[in-house]
Amino acid sequence: DVQLQASGGGLVQPGRSLRVSCAASGFTFSLYQMNWVRQAPGKEREMVASITSTDYSTYADSVKGRFTVSRDIAKNTIFLQMNSLKPDDTAVYLCNFRRADVSGPQDFWGQGTLVTVSS
Fold first, then answer.
1. What whole-number distance in Å separates Cα of residue 117 and Cα of residue 6?
2. Is the pLDDT reported for residue 63 higher than 90?
3. Rounded distance, CA 88 to CA 41, Å?
4. How far apart are the C-alpha atoms of 119 and 109, rounded to whole Å?
5. Can you give the pLDDT at residue 55?
6. Tag placement on the chain: N or C end, fewer CB within 10 Å?
């Protein structure tokens, strides 16, 4: 079974840094684009960062220059390094990937990890 386990969230002060991780299992991790998506209270989900199977990364304008996505193929894990955190970054951070199945594209989601930026 596909599993995505996010971890590393917590309470952090504005301007500080935090790294969250997502451990993947049950699929060939190296073949897929992996995404970090966040869900803030009362807001729609926002794609934060993506990393392709060839390690090409893209970012939302709101985090560009502050966040860095990376992956460790040997550990089947992706990371999101978050620097210069702002209160607006407060959200549940989820990892996700999309697989093209015979029945159509299927999205897989982890349970998320909560990041709270507050003084």
1. 18
2. yes
3. 11
4. 30
5. 92
6. N
